[in-house]
């Protein structure tokens, strides 16, 4: 039995927040794709490389407000916000993950600037 999308999403945020790029790679299908407002990252290696080397801020923490699991266990929507190392909110996000065969296959990310900034 494969892990459901909720488990995979939790592991995804743990990997990002702790700079566990090998762990992140193991969570993603080779054909993983992320769609977001400013870019699309196609392929597991491109995504992991971006998160490891090119994302603007790495000293952050994802704070999750809610996980909404689909009935089929292959899709989850996650609402939360990203904090800097001082605990200041940078922005609110909504992530929709799709999973297949125990791996994350797709991520659609929506962000809204924090009203605190």
Automatic annotation (TrEMBL):
Where the record annotates domain SnoaL-like, the positions are 9-106
Q: List where the protein spans the membrane.
A: none
Q: Name one Pfam family in it.
A: SnoaL_2
Specify the protein name: SnoaL-like domain protein
Q: Which organism is it from?
A: Haloferax massiliensis
């Amino acid at each position: 039995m494969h892990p459901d999308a909720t488990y995979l999403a939790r592991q995804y945020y743990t990997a990002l927040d702790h700079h566990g790029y090998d762990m992140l790679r193991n969570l993603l299908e080779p054909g993983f794709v992320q769609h977001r407002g400013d870019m699309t990252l196609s392929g597991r290696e491109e995504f992991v490389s971006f998160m490891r080397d090119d994302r603007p801020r790495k000293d952050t923490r994802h704070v999750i407000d809610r996980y909404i699991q689909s009935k089929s266990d292959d899709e989850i929507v996650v609402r939360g916000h990203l904090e800097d190392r001082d605990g200041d909110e940078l922005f609110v996000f909504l992530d929709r993950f799709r999973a297949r065969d125990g791996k994350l296959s797709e991520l659609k990310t929506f962000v809204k600037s924090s009203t605190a900034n």
